[in-house]
Design goal:
It is a single chain. The chain has a single domain, classed as Uracil-DNA Glycosylase, subunit E. It is built from eight helices and six strands. Strands 1-3-2-4-6-5 form a six-stranded mixed sheet. The longest helix has 16 residues. The radius of gyration is 17 Å and the shape is globular. The model has no long low-confidence stretch (mean pLDDT about 95).
Length: about 230
């Protein structure tokens, strides 16, 4: 793939990726066959680059764009309920300039935080296949390589947790055996790697059922703040 020299250059390459036929077909089908409430909008329908502060010390790893969220708006966690929950929490913790995000260009800026994902295209049933995550992994590696100040990684969900551990291993960092296990509130310290934190994913399945509450998210982000000395 070759090393990118800047985030904008890398992101231009991510947006043009067509490596996974199933994901390409799905993201473009969703963008053509819009749901009624967004029928008048032009969908993004392409892979999503990361979003945030290039000097960030906190890296947030999600899962994949939502079909009618990021796949529509062209920005991570933007225009859906998961994003509403996440950005409100980041705002309360001082990592976001405003508590919500509905579209690109709406004034949202992240402070000391950057959001990315191990899968850049909206997958059917919100479930990327293992081979699709593997195909997408070089984008994650390249993006993190251009975020040299990252000191803490917050994994939203088990897939993000595993993606972070796999990324560390590809960097030559020794991942202990047994591998650190995902659980809400888990923390893993690996020599030579940013501290890894875990939260349940901010999906509606978790937030609507009370499995993940704002207070629970606030505790995790407070821990991240403490790690960063904020």
């Amino acid at each position: 793939m070759g090393a990118a020299r800047s985030l904008p250059a890398l992101h231009a390459r991510i947006v043009g990726c067509r490596a996974c036929p199933r994901l390409v077909a799905w993201r473009e089908k969703v963008a053509r066959e819009k749901v009624r409430r967004f029928a008048a909008e032009e969908y993004w329908g392409r892979p999503l680059p990361g979003f945030g502060d290039a000097s960030a010390r906190l890296l947030v790893i999600g899962l994949a764009p939502a079909a009618h969220g990021g796949n529509r708006t062209g920005r991570m966690f933007t225009g859906d309920r998961s994003g509403d929950f996440l950005y409100a929490a980041l705002f309360r913790a001082g990592f976001a300039s405003q508590p919500g995000s509905v579209r690109r260009g709406d004034g949202l800026a992240l402070r000391d935080a950057f959001i990315t994902a191990p899968c850049r295209c909206a997958p059917p049933q919100n479930a990327p296949l293992p081979e699709e995550l593997e195909s997408c992994a070089p984008w994650l590696d390249a993006e993190i390589a251009l975020l040299p100040r990252v000191r803490a990684v917050l994994a939203l969900g088990a897939i993000a947790w595993e993606a972070a551990l796999r990324h560390f291993a590809r960097r030559g960092i020794a991942v202990p055996r047994p591998r650190p296990r995902f659980a809400h509130g888990a923390l893993a310290r690996l020599p030579g790697a940013p501290t890894l934190l875990a939260s349940y994913h901010v999906s509606q399945q978790n937030t609507n059922t009370g499995r993940l509450t704002p207070a629970m998210m606030d505790v995790v982000l407070a821990r991240a703040r403490k790690l960063l000395g904020r």
